[in-house]
Amino acid sequence: MSQSLHADPATDPATHTATLVLAALADPSRRALFEAVRRSDHALGRDELAEQAGLARATAAFHLDRLVDVGALTVEFERRSGRTGPGAGRPAKLYSLANDELTASVPARQYVLAGDMLAEAAEYSDSTGVPVRDALVQTAEVRGHELGSDQVPLVDTLVGIGYAPVACDGGYRLTNCPFHRLAARHTDLICTANTAFVRGLTDESAEPREVWLEPTEGECCVRIGGAHP
């Protein structure tokens, strides 16, 4: 991370861009489009995004262009037919995430949730003598069970918490860690607790899945496998 720790928020370009992006994402339609782009492992066109977000194509186009203007998304043009030259038609306008730290940090970081779990684990450890690490893992899994639901698709629960899931091999890669800063400082402890938390979420869903720890550069350390038969 090359940005100075003492950058002036009033003049720092990255801070200014982040403010614009967060303001744009306050609109539910833009947020839905942004989440649809982030969940995909390839660039998407307006028609696909409009359908996923439940918007008219013209409305989606307006909001997508706004997200490009503020730096949340980037645009590329591609002829999906594979043909070139006269008669090949106009290239499609495709949208993908801007490739910088900004869009990776857009999801809400769940530090309040993490703080609650840490405090609860500390109290449990003090009262029972259970090691703090074990207490945190137990607390995290219980909290996952509390927040999970078989009435909500698992992918929606993961998106709501900030994991930015992407379908992969029948399961999900989690492309954002809601506890990133804590995990960077206390990797083993937080990632183990995070795995237990996600396991609790999936156990309560209508599609229980295997969950395991698989550290991956630039992503959450947790992986989710295919649904159990």
Report on this structure.
- The structure is a single chain.
- The chain has 229 residues and is of the alpha+beta class.
- It folds into two domains: 92 residues, Arc Repressor Mutant, subunit A, CATH 1.10.10; 117 residues, no CATH class.
- The protein contains ten helices and seven strands.
- The protein has a four-stranded antiparallel sheet with strand order 4-5-7-6.
- A hairpin with an 8-residue loop joins strand 6 and strand 7.
- Helix 3 packs across helix 4.
- Pfam families: HTH_20 (PF12840).
- GO terms for molecular function: DNA-binding transcription factor activity.
- It comes from Leifsonia tongyongensis.
Descriptive keywords:
four-stranded antiparallel sheet, disordered N terminus, Arc Repressor Mutant, subunit A, 229 residues, alpha+beta
